[in-house]
C-alpha cells in the first residue's frame, strides 16, 4: 500500500508539470520520512549512487552517442536512397520508404523518438508536397519508430535488461523477428490506405538489380553494423556493453575515414546532443534507484505475483491484462519512465507465472513505445506534429488503422511466444 501511494505521488507530481526525475526522486525520498519507516535516511543517497554503478548500464550512453554519430556520418541519405529503391514502387511510395528506413535506422539510432524526428525533417515536407495529408504523414513517420524500438540496438531493451537482470544479448536477438513483422504489418496497412486515397508510387516499376546493388553497396557499412553487433554478442566476442564501445569506434571509422563526411565539428555536435540526452536518462535512472529499493523492500513484486497467480489461469490472460496496463501507462508517461518504474515490479511477476522475461521484454517495449505515439501525452506524437504542423485530431484519426495493425502483431506475440523466442533459442540455446 505504501509503495502504491508513493508511485501515485510521483504520478501526481509529473501531472502538475514537475520534471520526471525530480518527481520520482521526491516520491522515493518521502518513504524514509514516513512515521512507520525505520530505515535511516542515508540509504536514499546510497541507492542513487549505486544505481549508476553498473557495467551493463554503460551501454546506454554509448549507444545514444552512436546514434548521433551515425546520423552525422552520411549514413542517413544513403539508407534513404536504398529505402526508396526498395519500396518506392509501391502505392504510397514515400510512406513505404519511410517504414523501410525506420527498420534500417533501428540498427543505427536505437531511439524511436530520434528516428521519428529525423524522418519528419528529412521526409515530412516532401510527403506533404506529394499530396499526402499532414495527419497521414505524421502518423506514418511516428508509427515507423515502433520498429526502431525492437530492432537492436534498442535503448529501451538495454534498460529493461539491466533493471530486470535479463540477458541483453538475448533481448537484442529476440527483437529481430518482431521488428520485421511490425514492418510488414505497417507496410501492408500503408498499401491499402494509399490505394484508397490515390497516393502514387515515387518510382515506376520495380528497381533494376544493378540499382539496388549500387545503393546497397553505398549503404554497406550501415547495413553491416547490426550484423557485426549480433554476431559479436552471439559468439562471445564482446558483451553488449563492449559492443557499444566497438560501435563507437566503428561509427568514427565509417564517418571519418570511409565516408569522409564527419570532422571535429560534427563529432563535437554529436557529443553535445548525446550529453543532453544521456543526462536526462541518467537522472531518471539515478532517482529510480530509490523507488526500486522501496518496491523491493516492501515486497511489492512478491505480493503482486501471489495475487495474479491466483487470478489468472493462463499466460495469455496475464499478458493481455498487462498489455492493456502498459498501453495506458505509455499514453501518459514517456517509455523510459515506464520501463524504469515497472520493470523491477513486473519481471518477477511474469517469471513467477512461467513467462519468459525475454518474451515479456519485447512485448513491454512494443507497447510502451506505441503508447508514446498516442494522445494525450505521446512524445513522438508531439515531436512529429510540431515539426509538420499537423493537428493532433488529424494525426489521431490517421493513426487508427496503423494501431490496429500493431495490435494484430502484439496478439501474435502474446499467443505465439516462439515469434520472439525462436531466434535467441536457436542462436544462444
Automatic annotation (TrEMBL):
UniProt keyword annotation of Membrane present: yes
Residues spanning the membrane: 6-34, 55-75, 139-162, 168-194, 215-237, 243-259, 280-297, 317-350, 362-382, 402-423
Main location: membrane
TRAP C4-dicarboxylate transport system permease DctM subunit domain segment(s): 10-418
Membrane topology recorded in Swiss-Prot or TrEMBL: Multi-pass membrane protein
InterPro entries tied to this protein: DctM, TRAP_DctM
Keyword vocabulary terms for this entry: Cell inner membrane, Cell membrane, Membrane, Transmembrane, Transmembrane helix, Transport
Cellular location(s): Cell inner membrane
Reported function: Part of the tripartite ATP-independent periplasmic (TRAP) transport system.
Subunit structure comment from the entry: The complex comprises the extracytoplasmic solute receptor protein and the two transmembrane proteins.
Family: Belongs to the TRAP transporter large permease family.
Protein known as: TRAP transporter large permease protein
Organism per entry: Billgrantia sulfidoxydans
Amino acid at each position: 500500500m505504501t509503495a502504491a501511494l508513493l508511485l501515485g505521488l510521483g504520478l501526481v507530481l509529473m501531472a502538475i508539470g514537475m520534471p520526471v526525475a525530480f518527481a520520482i526522486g521526491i516520491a522515493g525520498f518521502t518513504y524514509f520520512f514516513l512515521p512507520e519507516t525505520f530505515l535511516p535516511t542515508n540509504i536514499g543517497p546510497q541507492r542513487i549512487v549505486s544505481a549508476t554503478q553498473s557495467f551493463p548500464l554503460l551501454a546506454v550512453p554509448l549507444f545514444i552517442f552512436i546514434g548521433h554519430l551515425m546520423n552525422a556520418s552520411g549514413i542517413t541519405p544513403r539508407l534513404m536512397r536504398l529505402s526508396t529503391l526498395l519500396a518506392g514502387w509501391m502505392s504510397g511510395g514515400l510512406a513505404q520508404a519511410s517504414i523501410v528506413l525506420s527498420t534500417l535506422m533501428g540498427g543505427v539510432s536505437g531511439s524511436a523518438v530520434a528516428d521519428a524526428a529525423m524522418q519528419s525533417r528529412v521526409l515530412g515536407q516532401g510527403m506533404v508536397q506529394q499530396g499526402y495529408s499532414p495527419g497521414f504523414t505524421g502518423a506514418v513517420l511516428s508509427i515507423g519508430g515502433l520498429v526502431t524500438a525492437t530492432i537492436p540496438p534498442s535503448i529501451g531493451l538495454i534498460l529493461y535488461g539491466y533493471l530486470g537482470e535479463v540477458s541483453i544479448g538475448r533481448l537484442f536477438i529476440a527483437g529481430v523477428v518482431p521488428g520485421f513483422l511490425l514492418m510488414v504489418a505497417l507496410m501492408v496497412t500503408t498499401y491499402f490506405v494509399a490505394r484508397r486515397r490515390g497516393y502514387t508510387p515515387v518510382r515506376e516499376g520495380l528497381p533494376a538489380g544493378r540499382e539496388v546493388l549500387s545503393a546497397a553497396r553505398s549503404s554497406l557499412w550501415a547495413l553491416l553494423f547490426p550484423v557485426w553487433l549480433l554476431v559479436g554478442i552471439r559468439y562471445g566476442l564482446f558483451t553488449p556493453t563492449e559492443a557499444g564501445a566497438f560501435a563507437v569506434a566503428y561509427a568514427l571509422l565509417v564517418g571519418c575515414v570511409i565516408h569522409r563526411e564527419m570532422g571535429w565539428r560534427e563529432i563535437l555536435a554529436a557529443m553535445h546532443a548525446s550529453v543532453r540526452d544521456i543526462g536526462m536518462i541518467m537522472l531518471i535512472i539515478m532517482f529510480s534507484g530509490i523507488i526500486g529499493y522501496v518496491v523491493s523492500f516492501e515486497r511489492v513484486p512478491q505480493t503482486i505475483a501471489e495475487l495474479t497467480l491466483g487470478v489468472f489461469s493462463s499466460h495469455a490472460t496475464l499478458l493481455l491484462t498487462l498489455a492493456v496496463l502498459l498501453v495506458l501507462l505509455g499514453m501518459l508517461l514517456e517509455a523510459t519512465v515506464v520501463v524504469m518504474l515497472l520493470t523491477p515490479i513486473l519481471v518477477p511477476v511474469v517469471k513467477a507465472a512461467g513467462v519468459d522475461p525475454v518474451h515479456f521484454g519485447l512485448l513491454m517495449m512494443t507497447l510502451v513505445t506505441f503508447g508514446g505515439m498516442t494522445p494525450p501525452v505521446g512524445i513522438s506524437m508531439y515531436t512529429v506534429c510540431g515539426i509538420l504542423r499537423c493537428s493532433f485530431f488529424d494525426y489521431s484519426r490517421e493513426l487508427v488503422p496503423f494501431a490496429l495493425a500493431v495490435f494484430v502483431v502484439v496478439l501474435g506475440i502474446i499467443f505465439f511466444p516462439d515469434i520472439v523466442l525462436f531466434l535467441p533459442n536457436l542462436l544462444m540455446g
